[in-house]
Design brief:
The complex is a heterodimer of chains A (about 375) and B (about 90).
Chain A: E1 4-7, H1 11-22, E2 27-30, E3 46-47, H2 54-68, H3 70-74, E4 85-89, H4 92-107, E5 112-115, H5 117-122, E6 132-136, E7 140-141, H6 144-157, E8 161-163, E9 168-173, E10 177-181, E11 185-188, E12 190-193, H7 199-204, E13 213-224, E14 232-235, E15 240-244, E16 249-254, H8 269-280, E17 290-301, E18 308-312, E19 314-321, H9 327-342, H10 349-353, H11 359-362
Parallel strand pairs in A: 1-2, 1-12, 2-8, 4-14, 12-19
Antiparallel strand pairs in A: 3-7, 4-6, 5-6, 9-10, 10-11, 13-16, 13-17, 14-15, 15-16, 18-19
Helix pairs in contact in A: 1-6, 1-9, 2-9
Chain B: E1 3-5, E2 10-11, H1 12-20, H2 26-33, H3 46-55, E3 73-74, H4 75-90
Antiparallel strand pairs in B: 1-2
Classes of the chains: A alpha/beta (about 375), B mainly alpha (about 90).
Chain lengths: ~375, ~90
Amino acid sequence: MSKTVIIGGGVNGASIAYNLAKLGESVTLIERGYITDGATGKCGGGIRTQFTTEETCRIALESSKLFDSLAEELACDIELRKGGYLILAHSDKELEEFKENVRMQNSIGVPSRILTVKEIEAFGVEPYDAVGASFCKMDGVANPFKVSFGYRDRAKELGADIRTHEEVRKISYNGGFEILTDKNNYGADFVVNAAGYESKKIADMLGVSLPIEPYKHEIFATEAMDHFLDPMLMSFSKNFYISQTVRGELVGGYSPLEAEPTEDLTPTLSFAIRAKKLFEEHLPQIKSLRLLRQWAGAYDMTPDALPILGPAGYERFIQANGFSGHGFMLSPFVGRAIASMITGSERYRDLVSSFSFERFKRGVKREKGVVG
Amino acid sequence: MKIVCRCEDVTYDDVLDAIKKGYTDIEELKRYLRCSMGTCQGRGCNRLLRQILLEQGVKEVPFTKNRPPVKPVSFFLLEDEVEEREGDENE
């Protein structure tokens, strides 16, 4: 029996397992498929600190700093490249909002700034209809597979019990938790729910209702080309992002602004065509590139597009879900914060307090910086 | 040295090491080693990867899921192709 059972082997489950094992805690991770099988393995690998709500900026800043030393900590190349995020403003009104965001971001230590059209051009990006941009050099990209497997390998070496291809069927509570899977039975003091959009189904097993819905997001990778694009290029109003990986591939996503929740993750031809039309306005090079593969993943959206971190329903039923498209970038912080919560440390209490499950009872303000 | 994946420089020994670490699901192995994620998208190495897993005693190894467009397609051509097809439908 482990003290903690984590449900979900995405980057956050793996990060929590590693951080608990590092603290000498006994931990079992249960994943239905393989590590990175869910949203982690479908994501764009972006790391961003430029958010519109202060509490998100604070944890994103912590997380971004942790990424800087993560390759050393996990003893593996995570293909981290910090070329910044360049967020295009397509109207004067949007640029005014960005200026306000930058003031707030600067006040808490995020070194973002406003760019002119000329400065956008200097990044090798065609401004097209952009009237300015917001930029932060602390932002960048890394490889979600390398990070997740790095966490998994080190967690295993430190004694974590990693169980893949095993599905949780039932959870009950009677002073402690009992977790029944298709293969085994586990007892635990703590259960961590890190199952992406399916966290809702896991919580339902304990009669806890999480406000999480799956939204489909499509994404593609091109063949590799010589390095030409430093920043992750992004647009809130056109709902796209694109970056060049360390390996030279362009990885980009775009989603229609009006979408309904769905579990259907079939890639579509119309996505590839629309994405190309959007991207060639800013990066004309893309026309001559070959599309290597395209796929889709699900954002686990909450009503305010912010994660749920901490207990729900039961004191020791800990949520690490509802990331709304930002799970990968927050994972180094989330691993530490949840491990610290389970070991009774106060260290991250203030930082995570804004992300409690209880906030939905009080009413919430939506994070507007969501893309893809 | 035996090469399994030419696009991503993955050797036979790399695959054996990964299997020893517990990566025995072909989809997971692909993502761990990047074998089948290069320009050929697995057309060169997927069979070899599968064969090694079977040799190592893993039962029931499927091929990895194909991602469209299966074979790399120029963005430029992709658009032309579709417009032409839509034109055909109108006629």
